[in-house]
Write a structure and sequence with these properties.
Layout lengths: L3 E4 L4 H12 L5 E4 L6 H7 L11 E4 L2 E3 L2 H11 L11 H27 L2 H6 L13 H15 L6 H18 L13 H9 L13 H7 L2 H6 L1 H14 L1
Parallel strand pairs: 1-2
Antiparallel strand pairs: 1-3, 3-4
Helix pairs in contact: 1-3, 1-8, 4-6, 4-7, 4-8, 8-11
């Protein structure tokens, strides 16, 4: 089927993978994932009927790369252009990706709770061919959102703990950027990609194809105000490197 990226257009994780692939000029076909519905197909494609399905997933030749970091490393291997993983700073870059993952994990948990209370956003999550059904399909949209929450969001973490997880990572990024335009090595790397995408749970970038209600759900006005400098940095980074 050729090199194929299965993604969710609105997902910061998928944007991390697309950014790395595009940075390296890697050609690929995009397939939009439909939670629940498409998961049996992905298990077959990945030749693992028991695996937990998450996207993005890159199918490349006979290999399956099942998270954004692995996809970015694959892009570095087969693509061209400036490195996103220079060896001299590899450990720091992987560390920043872990920081970004913690921000995104907490951000998704908070966004999912808001989404389940927002009927317009739930309808926007329906596959494009179902959206004309509007609120008549709201029960189906709720089932899909609840499925995603149950798979990714532990209910034992309090809202305060989730916010603290986000602010800890954002504070670390702010400190690193106090003396440099980039997080490590004085140059653009995957560390910057990862943190920039994590800020999608503070203020989604304009380029992400979000409906207006979903954009509200992904936004956090409180953190957007506190970390306006980081959002500005992210927007400059996108303008220069995306």
């Amino acid at each position: 089927m050729g090199r194929t990226l299965v993604h969710l257009p609105q997902s910061p994780w998928s944007e991390k993978a697309r950014w790395a692939l595009d940075h390296h000029g890697v050609e690929y076909k995009l397939v939009e994932h439909v939670p629940m519905v498409f998961e049996p197909v992905l298990r077959i494609w990945s030749r693992d009927l028991r695996r937990k399905i998450t996207v993005p997933i890159l199918f490349d030749e006979s290999h399956t790369f099942s998270d954004s970091l692995a996809i970015a490393e694959r892009a570095e291997e087969v693509g061209r252009g400036s490195p996103l993983f220079p060896r001299s700073h590899l450990a720091e870059i992987v560390g920043w990706n872990e920081v970004a993952e913690r921000i995104m994990w907490a951000g998704r948990a908070r966004a999912m709770e808001r989404m389940l209370q927002n009927k317009r956003s739930l309808v926007e999550q329906l596959p494009p061919f179902l959206r004309p059904g509007g609120r008549a399909l709201l029960p189906l949209a709720k089932v899909g959102a609840a499925f995603v929450r149950s798979k990714h969001v532990p209910r034992t973490t309090s809202p305060a703990e989730l916010e603290a997880a986000m602010t800890a990572g954002l504070d670390k990024a702010r400190a690193a950027l106090a003396t440099s335009a980039y997080l490590t090595g004085g140059a653009f790397t995957f560390a910057d990609v990862a943190i920039a995408c994590a800020l999608g749970f503070v203020v989604p970038p304009a380029r992400l194809p979000l409906g207006p209600a979903t954009r509200d759900v992904f936004s956090d006005p409180k953190l957007a105000s506190v970390y306006a400098d980081l959002v500005d940095w992210r927007d400059r980074l996108i303008e220069q490197h995306r």
